Amino acid sequence: MLSGFLPVEQPRAPTEWGEPLATENPYAGYWPNGEQYTWVFAETLNPTNFEVVQSMVLRTPHQYGPFQQVESSIWISSFLGMQESRMRQAIDLVDERVQSIRIDSSSFNLELKENAQEHIFRSISKDVELKVWVFDCYTTSGIDPDGTKIGEVVLVGQARWGGTVDLLVVLRPFFHDGLTSDPYAESIVNQWVV
């Protein structure tokens, strides 16, 4: 478990994405160690159609090999509530841009829409098959006890030898065009996969 404190490499940052908006996450825990970059991509003609993208590399002290590493890391982070702490920064960025609903980043939850799906992403050099998790994101700070849907989260990951995993999180507000036309955020993931 001490290996969870070892340093990690920098997250993937495709050159097409430019400089990240943030290179640290004030809400992330100290264990396991990880690095996270965050971008906000907005359409020029429709700036309310935006995506918050987080690329991260995390230490996986529970597993050093790639077999089922992404799946076990997602399960453990869900169980321990680590997903929510890493997502708070993205929720704050959505709150800044969506004026119709006030979103408290400490009062939200993620609900898995369906089990992870296998999907083929097409990077520049090859096709890569990854599992994709899609979550509904709800704010729980309003009057509805079940929460109000504020968006969807797409999560993919690639395992590495040596006890680290690369993850990509794409948060889109509930009115984003891509929720129906690009449900697995391929336009973003294709640039990220290696």
Summary?
The protein is an alpha+beta fold.
Description:
It is a single chain. The chain has 194 residues and is α+β, with helices and mostly antiparallel strands. The chain has one domain. It contains four helices and seven strands. Strands 1, 2, 3, 4, 5, 6 and 7 form a seven-stranded antiparallel beta sheet that branches. A hairpin with a 4-residue loop joins strand 4 and strand 5. The chain is globular. The two termini are 28 Å apart. The N terminus is likely disordered.
Number of helices: 4
The N- to C-terminal Cα distance equals 28 Å
Estimated share of beta-strand residues:
25-35%
Structural class: alpha+beta
Write the topology of this structure.
Blueprint (H helix, E strand, L loop, with lengths): L33 E9 L7 E10 L9 H12 L1 H16 L10 E5 L4 E6 L4 E13 L8 E12 L4 E10 L4 H4 L4 H7 L2
Antiparallel strand pairs: 1-2, 2-7, 3-5, 4-5, 5-6, 6-7
Keywords:
seven-stranded antiparallel β-sheet, globular, disordered N terminus, 194 residues, 4 helices, 20% helix, 34% strand, alpha+beta
